[in-house]
Amino acid sequence: MRWLAGVGLVLLAIGGAKAQVDVLDSPTNSSLRGVSSPGAGVAWISGADGAVFRSEDGGYLWQTCAVPPGGAHLDFRGIQGMDGSTALVMASGKGALSAVYKTTDGCASWRLVLKNPDAEGFWDALAFDSPRHGYLWGDPVDGRFVLYETSDGGESWVRSQRAELKMAAAGIGGFAASNSGFLAGGLQFGTSGPGGPWLYTLGSSEAPATRLPMQGGAASAGVFSLGAHVMVRVAVGGDFQKPEARTGTAAFSTDGGKHWEAAAVAPHGYRSAVAYDAGHQAWLAAGPNGMDVSFDNGRTWRVVNGPQGMGWNAISLPFLVGAKGRIGVVREEMFSGK
């Protein structure tokens, strides 16, 4: 296996001031949408054309992983690292192009653990709330969202038959833009579609679907990413075909997702990913034209790195990944000026 050194860091700054992100030398030019940082300097990233990489030193060196069986042309949009040795990676695509593989030997080899049985299906997110318990969420098939659950670390999967998975209307679907449209802890997911976007809450005694005050009504617009901290929920998105438009790009809830408000000051463009930084009590949202930070639980957002961004797709703090193999590490200065 090949190791690559992440040398020659590029520093992004606001107006030439303090650096905000270290952009690492990347081992690939493939578009990256999967990133998982389980801690202790370990990071896993994945993307198009069978791309999977691992680091054990905070991103300085990257190991080119073995390609999962038959995965050379798959688009690995989701990855979940448990530690430096164990991870699961999810391919997204129509029908058999959606699959999940697992490694337990630091990505020297992979095993197929789940393959999409639905010819019209498309998988959107792989999310775990503990090393052994997790979910796989996909677009509707025959009028129902697809949901699989595992209780043994992804070795086996059971398809859910929950009544709430039935769509409220035809044409509703999810996004596989950043592997963050599904919250494993709260059993919630965000969608696009007619009259939407929508937040679905499984197991709720109230209506399973709640309309969010965000951009929607088109196949290209809706909720692309959800984040949670205690009872706060933050949703980001917009319209990926209008990446510079900031109308309807974020909303927030302070009661676990029952009631929502549109952001008073929205992120400055379409956003595909959001994450909470507990140490700084801040939210970070990222998209094609840059990043924004919020210190008031998603009510107002402040531009981080100006209008010319780096094509970011996904976040697992402190890491970001994006187009053309771009990998970044968030610095402390990102949260300065609170």
Q: How would you describe this structure to a colleague?
A:
The protein has 338 residues and is mainly β. The strands form seven sheets. The protein has a five-stranded antiparallel sheet, with no helix packed on it. A five-stranded antiparallel sheet has the order 2-3-30-29-28, with no helix packed on it. A four-stranded antiparallel sheet has the order 8-9-10-11, with no helix packed on it. The chain is 0% helix and 43% strand. It has one domain: Methylamine Dehydrogenase, Chain H, CATH 2.130.10. It starts with a strand and ends in an 8-residue tail after the last strand. Strand 24 and strand 25 form a beta hairpin. The radius of gyration is 18 Å and the shape is globular.
Main sheet: strands, sense, barrel: 5 strands, antiparallel
**Strand coverage percent:** 35-45%
Q: Please provide the ordered H/E string of secondary-structure elements.
A: EEEEEEEEEEEEEEEEEEEEEEEEEEEEEE
Low-confidence stretches: 1-17
How is the quaternary structure best described? single chain
Number of domains: 1
Could you tell me the number of beta strands?
A: 30
CATH class: Mainly Beta
- Mean pLDDT across every amino acid position: 91
- Count up the helices: 0
Question: Roughly what percent helix?
Answer: under 10%
Radius of gyration: 18 Å
Q: Which structural class matches the secondary elements?
A: mainly beta
How far apart, in Å, are the first and last alpha carbons? 43 Å
CATH superfamily: YVTN repeat-like/Quinoprotein amine dehydrogenase
Which architecture per CATH?
Answer: 7 Propeller
The best one-word shape is globular
Strand order of the largest sheet: 1-7-6-5-4
CATH topology heading: Methylamine Dehydrogenase, Chain H
